[in-house]
Amino acid sequence: MTKRDPHLLLQAAPFLRRGITTPGLMMDVLLGLAPLVLAAIYFFGLSAVLVLLTCTIGAVATEWALSPARPRGSSIKDGSAILTGIILGLCLPPAIPLWMAFLGGVAAIGLGKLMFGGLGQNLFNPALVGRAFLQAAFPTAITTWSQQGTITEFWGLRLSSWYVPFTHWVPDWLRILLEGVFGPQVDVISSATPLAFIKFGGEAAPFNNLLLGNTAGSLGETCALLIIICGIILAFRRTFDWRIPVSILLTVAAASGIVWLFNHDSPSPLYMLLSGGLLFGAVYMATDPVTSPIAPRGAWIFGIGVGLIVVLIRLWGGLPEGVMYAILLMNAATPLIDRIAQPRAFGRTITGEVSA
Hints:
Blueprint: H1 22-44, H2 46-66, H3 80-90, H4 98-112, H5 126-137, H6 139-142, H7 172-182, H8 194-201, H9 207-212, H10 224-236, H11 243-262, H12 269-274, H13 278-285, H14 296-316, H15 323-340, E1 348-350, E2 353-355
Antiparallel strand pairs: 1-2
């Protein structure tokens, strides 16, 4: 009998350095979203808190009420409903009525996730399904942007947040209560986003404003620098496939750059990259592992498709932004991409059998 070396470790494959679980993955993304949530609160005050909470409550309540998992509410523990609610909230304007935000959370989970069978079976990104629902049902509210405030205006709520469903009216008792608790309230002051400025007005926002977030827009899309930093950290942690955001951004830069060379009135590649929801969508929504391709080659195809559709809609479409539609369309194409980009199996066939 031989003596066993205490320094020799023998174990069976696979040799995993890091076990990845669904709750752990969701927590990684939530931590990566935390700086954007704080920035949204800094820029838009208490209104941002209310929108994010309302979307999350709508998503979690729908998960609890309609999920087929038993015991009831057990599926909430994986964190996917909370993540969906927060991402949806970061896609919305700060002055959207809260009842619409709640309805968006319901649609995100009900239509975007549970209708397909639950987590891991959905074809489309649930948060984008919720936003697409709001875009179709309430196009005016979803495209009414308000200018940012300062940290000293944190308690300044927007009256439009409290509109009674299907009206533009706030009850007098509620208005008096809000003014008594939070001070004088004002209705939303509309402001255009940088993409709307340059598409319909021919005026470009300063690049420093785009980088630092001093622009109108959705809660989580304004500060480009913060999204880039968080995206790099998540990529190094291998929370998502880096090929998807890189291919999206490279495609948008290349396609818009070609157009810009022939027409300097169109947005420059840098402006296209820093404005709108492109960075936020590329980092936090296009990288959803359930609705994006698995194979590396498929990730490149997916990202190139998203980038081309974004450029087409932004430059020649009727809307200033196209990230949401681009990702949803490529989500629908993901099963086909997976089939095309499936890696070849190792070995070769000999008399009907595969030889390794």
